[in-house]
Each structure stands twice: as C-alpha cells, then as structure tokens.
Amino acid sequence: MTILIKGGHVINPATQMDEVADVLIKDQKIKKIGKELPEKEAERVINADGCYVMPGFIDMHVHFRDPGFEQKEDIYTGMQAAAHGGYTTVLTMPNTKPVADNPDIVNYVHNKAKSGSCIHVLQVGAVTKGQQGKELADIEGMVKAGSPAISEDGKSVMDAALYRDGMLEAARLGIPVLAHCEDIHMVRGGVMNADAKAKELGLPGITNSVEDVIVARDIILAKDTGAQLHLCHCSTKDSVLMVKVAKEEGVRVSAEVCPHHFTLSTDDMKEADTNYKMNPPLRTKEDVKALREGLRDGIMEVISTDHAPHTFEDKNRSMQEAPFGIVGLETAGKGKKAQAPAEIPGGTVSGSKEPLLPYSCRLSPLAYGMENGLRPALPGGSLSSPVCGSLTEARPSGISAGCAAVRGNRGKSGFDYGLRKGCDTA
Question: Known catalytic residue: 306?
C-alpha cells in the first residue's frame, strides 16, 4: 500500500531537516520526502497540516512492571502508552518480580512484546542477581538473549568493587551501563527535595548529594574500566557539571534528563501531593536551569521519561507511604506550553510558542549504537529508516486524549505535568 503524509512539519534530526514537507511511504518503507509530492501516487493521503512528522521516539528508560506487578502496568498496556505518545522503541528496566537477571526473563519480555506487535521493547538486564548487590547476574547470557544494556535501576549497586566488576563485563561485551545514582545510606527516609518547600510541608528531604556522590563514583569507575556509562534521570546542577568535566577528560559517559526534572521544581508543589513524588525528586529552580542549559549545550544528550506507573491505591496515600514514580510516555512529546531551553540542535523550543516535540527527537549516539563500538543500533531514529513503523505523527495542539489523572483506568500516577502547567487537551 502507498501512503502519502501531506503537508506536515517534518523533523529529522539525522539530516537536520526541519520544514514543512510530504512523506511518501510504499509497502511500509519510506520512499521519498519532498515538497508537493503528487497525490496520484498514493492509495491513501493523510492530511498532516498542523502536525509534526518525526522519527519514532526512543525512550531509554521505562518501567513496564511485567512480570510481577501487572496491576500497575504490563507489556501490552505499556506498549499502547508508548505508541500513544509517539514512541516506537523503549528500554524496560529490570526491577520486576522476579528481577530481569537471567535470559529467561529477557526472553519472556521480548516474546510477549512481539506478540503485541505494537512497538519495539528491549529488556535491560540487572547488574546483580535479584538486584541484591551481592553477586553479578548472568550478564553475558542476557546479552545473548537480546539485552542492550545492564542497569540496577531503582537503586545503585553500593558495593563499588562488585559494580566495577559489572562494568568490566559490560565493557567486554560492548554494552552500556545505565546508572541509577542514589546513595541509599544518605536517603534517610526522604520523600522530596531537601529545601525550603520540604520544611514548609514538614517532610523529610533528599539532598542533591544523595545523587551527586554516586554520579562522581560511577564516572570514576567508568574511567577506570573503559565502560560506556549512561547516567539515568539526572536531576542536580552538579551532575551536569560532572558530566561536562568527564567528557572533557575523555570518559565514555552520556546522560539523560526527564521532562518533569527540566520543567518543574519544588516551587510547583502547592501541597503534599503524591503525584509530585518521584525518584530523584523535583529539585530547585537553580537545578532546573542547569539541566536546561545542559540539554541546550549537548552535555546531557538524552530525554527519557522514567515512565513508572502505580495503581490509584498505591499513590492515594501519604507522601511518606506512597511509592516514588509517575508516568510519562503519553505526555512527554506533546506538551504545548512546557518550558524548555530556547535553542536546540535540530529544532527550536521557545516556551509556549513551540511544542516540546523536537526536543524529544534528540537522541544520543548511544541510542543509535554509532560510537565507541557499541552493539547494533536501536530500531528507529531517522526518517530514512526503511520501517514505516518508526514514524510518528503528532499534533502540537495539546495532550493526547485520555492521559490525564488516571493511567489506563489503573493508576493515579498518570500525572500529566503538561496539564498542570496549563496545556490544552486534544
């Protein structure tokens, strides 16, 4: 079948294309991109006037809760949320039940995702068995089963010597290490950022140093081992500084920032609302400013959602009792008025005048597997891709319908930061 997407604003970071154009698709392959392509060549014409047409987004950090926590999310609902938000490839974290620490769990996730045939789902393997931090998992076995990376996400491996061994194994196998940076001994029951707002609300805080100490450690270990390190959900101003210095020193490090961390600060918290409870927590305006500048300057290459759904019952508790985590797949690419840095490579985001879409298209070379001898590229990422399924069309008029307070009629954690910031709805 031949399909013509007509008159959309085409953004293709791989070629720096950022203009209104037509896209011709034939037999599920992109055949041509150009101006005023003739409609007679197409069996179906899609009017994309007022829409953005982009490569499918790649999210390097999601939680689909499957196996073990399917009441929160499962592979099928997670894929639907991803597709709804324009994502065609996602990396799922290993903190499931049982933990994804062996090839059998990796195969389970991949096979279930294939049966849904909606998007590409890649299961990240755990660093240690059961994420207990005592013994390395079967990293080689998981890589052979298709894991693109390892991570202890949800926590850090506190045994630095063991973590170093994991990094050496990752370097040998040519896969990156995705690092959740949190010194668990310094958390001390904190539920939000340690600042004036925490004192106002009477809540225990989490200092920036909880994250920064492990960022520094992991960068040093990456330099020591030669491993490719990717820092997950960075939230502090000093994390940006450390990544910048590490890169200048030639360390193989990349970093991601989540939309909630570069659009919201604790100043946006008017009450002890558990929809604002995520890990790392929302920080200060000073941290937000540094994160935006890091994204603008290319220090922080990746925007990931850290999509982490929970049930309504889980989140409908006190700040001390409710779990950390909010969703993001359905909303991250569609915020009309979300604040973002003014200039970015491959597109411009200017406050409320332009949507966040071009920003979500920016993916690091890590995601493409194009540098430092990493494993093969993830599916998608360019409109020159032969797979039509890696194409996303989105309207800048607001948020996808159905992604407000309740995620899939399951969880309160379907918190839509865009709506809280005053976005319209589609």
Answer: yes
